[in-house]
Amino acid sequence: MTPEEYDSLSSEERRVKDQEERTREATEQAALPYKWTQTLGEVDIAFPVPKGTKGKDLIIMIQKKKISAGLKGKDKILEGELCKEIKIDDSTWTLEDNENVHIHLEKANTQQWWENVLTHHPKIDTTKIEPANSKLSDLDGETRGMVEKMMFDNQQKQMGKPTSDELKKMEALKKFQGAHPELDFSNAKIS
């Protein structure tokens, strides 16, 4: 279904269509030999192995665009081309309680949702992802500064006070007036 066709549906038809899609996706994802979750910056993959498995029993290979994981001498549990590129040096794997493998992949592009882990596996609809609320501390310095400025300006507007840009202009005007006391600004309109 194209986005235009979807937009032409009534709200009830959209709700039904969305529910059908979520059910289909859940069924396809449940059939995979692993479970996976993602944030904008990372992908986490987990799969069970026989109880008592040791790290030396595993063969795990993580490359920029490929991955394979499994037990020595057995078929791979996970093998193929990754949906998108990863940062190899920041990606890791662990064996938890000798029965669960956890693979952590750091995305190369931290502003993009993945449709699937491996390109040959079923895709999810990334437009329907509802990300968890992030904390300001999760943001890089520049983005955090912009968000904090927007929050301050919004708060100032709600209280009927000047925004940060307006405060900067007022401060510049005060400095200029201090440097030029001979000028009269009493009737000046500053925009």
Which features would summarize this protein structure in a list?
191 residues, Immunoglobulin-like, alpha+beta, 3-stranded antiparallel β-sheet, 4-stranded antiparallel β-sheet
Structural notes for this entry:
With 191 residues, the protein is of the alpha+beta class. The protein folds into 3 domains: 1-31, no CATH class; 34-122, Immunoglobulin-like (Sandwich), CATH 2.60.40.790; 133-191, no CATH class. It is 31% helix and 25% strand. It has 4 helices and 7 strands; from the N terminus they run ααβββββββαα. It has helices at residues 3-7, 11-30, 141-158, 164-179, and strands at 35-38, 42-48, 58-62, 66-71, 76-81, 86-96, 100-107. The strands form 2 sheets. It has a 4-stranded antiparallel beta sheet with strand order 1-2-7-6, with no helix packed on it. The longest helix is centred in the N-terminal third of the chain and has 20 residues, at 11-30. The chain starts with a helix and ends in a 12-residue tail after the last helix.
